[in-house]
Amino acid sequence: MKIMKKVYLAVLITLLSSTAAFSQGSGIWNFQWDMGMGVGETADFVGAYSLRGFALEGRGYVTENITIGGRWAWDIFYENYGWTTEKHNEGQTSVYGYKRHYMNTMPIMATAHYTFNSNKFIPYIGFGVGTYYIETRDMLGIYYIEEEAWHFGVAPEVGVIIPFGQTSNWGLNLNFRYNWAAKTKDTKQQTWINPSIGFSYFW
Amino acid sequence: MVIMKNKLQWAVVVLMLFGIGLFSSCYPNDDLTNSDSDIVMTNYHDTVHFDRIQTYFLPDTIVPLRDKDDTSKVDKNPYTSTIINSIVKNMNAYGYQRIENPDENNLPDVVLLAAAVSTTNTSVWYPSYPYYPGWDWWYGYPGWGYYPPYYGGGYVSSYTMGTLKINMMDPWTYDVIEGDTVMPIYWDATIHGLLQGNEIENRIEANIDKAFELSPYLKEGK
Q: B30 touching A, CB under 8 A?
């Protein structure tokens, strides 16, 4: 339940930081299906492509082209290594077991985007800065080592919103994001990419 | 292009999020069979010349692993013959000779001892490892320094876990520490898993085979 409290708090912060930017009176809500793939050391830990993830994002226009807002997401990574043998102590110790790796990540980001003027499509580039809650599990049989930490992180992204016609408030949102979660005192840095697809709602 | 009604639009979004949430359990695909819980670990000491070891003594009993002061009566381990036969089969296959009735003229180079314990509601595995004579090897226990913290976070409740230890010890280099006779352990295997289901004997056999497979150095020079 502890984690759920953090989630609720994170959603609240995201919503508040989003609405703070909405004084202009117009903006975008995004409801996204996040996919993910670890890169660098993260790929060494869990390299399989992930279809498990979703995100909520609010953006408010502060000028004609610039939005600021907030983003909350949950991305889940999983890789099954099957039956493996590990060597330790210069090969003197062998451990054989059924091995799986998990990584759960929850980004909470303040975001800024620049949208390009266009008639049919709304391309944008953006940048997020904030925190990632990351929980990793290295499981062998029924045992696991768990690490959890709040990381500082940044997330540059590019994307495009394709409106569903002239009269609709809705559109298709496609974007591609790079996530960098800095190392902490006890845990390593994590990096992954998010191809993401979802709906945008203009207000 | 499709123009959606307002309520429909929200319903789609909610359904989408709900749907994504449904297959997005934080720890997906983590339903394990009993045998998936099996872990086999082996250690050896790299100063030992296994090629000089030819004969071994292996008692036909499984020592109960328990607290030092626990003297209660223990039932015979129900898997005794499976365990002993599997060890003998593998040791013979690796070129060792079992000495069943040692005497002054027929002494074994090493002693093998199989010891087991089953625990229910395991909170931690290695750190609470029970004591038995010969366990406290003064020379340090290879691997042990690494693994207890490694699995320190591991936790499982309401299951019965079985642990089998097979130790290869040198009875001729014993030492006495605080009244206990301790012998250096040249090689050990630990087999650990859920003690439930109807394939326990097969798993014990397969895992003992695996322990020897993980220890090819045992057959050096044979």
A: yes
Let me know: does A74 contact A27? Beta carbons within 8 Å. no
Q: Is the model's pLDDT at A77 over the cut of 90?
A: yes
The answer to whether position B130 is within a domain reads yes
The mean pLDDT of B35-63, rounded to a whole number, is 89
**Mean pLDDT rounded to a whole number for chain A:** 88
- Tell me the residue range of the domain where B82 lies: 36-219
Contact A155, A187 (CB under 8 A): no
Q: Taking each helix axis as running N to C, give the angle between helix B80-93 and helix B200-213, from 0 to 180 degrees, rounded to the nearest 10.
A: 30
- Whether residue B174 lies inside any domain: the answer is yes
* Predicted pLDDT of residue B149: 27
Name which of A54, A95, A201 to mutate to probe chain B: the one with the most chain B Cβ atoms within 10 A of its Cβ. Answer: A95
Domains held by chain B: number: 1
- Whether residue B20 and residue A54 make contact (CB cut-off 8 A), yes or no, is yes
Q: How far apart are CA B57 and CA B45, in angstroms?
A: 19
CATH number of A2-202: 2.40.160.20
Stronger pLDDT, A130 or B158, i.e. the higher one? A130
HSE at residue B141, side-chain half, CA atoms within 13 A, is: 19
Domain boundaries, chain A: 2-202
pLDDT band at B28 (very low <50, low <70, confident <90, very high): confident
- Report pTM: 0.76
pLDDT in tens, A147-158: 899 999 999 999
Phi, then psi, of B216 in degrees rounded to 5: -65, -20
- CA A154 remoteness from chain centre: 10
Chain A residues within an 8 Å CB radius of B28: 52, 76, 78
Rg of the Cα trace of chain B? 24
- Whether A49 contacts chain B with CB within 8 A: no
pLDDT for res A185: 92
In a domain, B165, yes or no: yes
Position B144 scores a pLDDT of 31
Residue A120 burial (10 A CB sphere; 0-12, 13-18, 19+): exposed
Written as six digits, the tokens of A185 are 């005192």
Lowest mean pLDDT among A85-99, A118-132, A168-182, B126-140: B126-140
What CATH number is associated with residue B78?
A: 3.30.160.670
Is B3 part of a structural domain of the chain? no
- Report DSSP letters for B182-198, one per residue: E--EEEEEEEEEE--SS
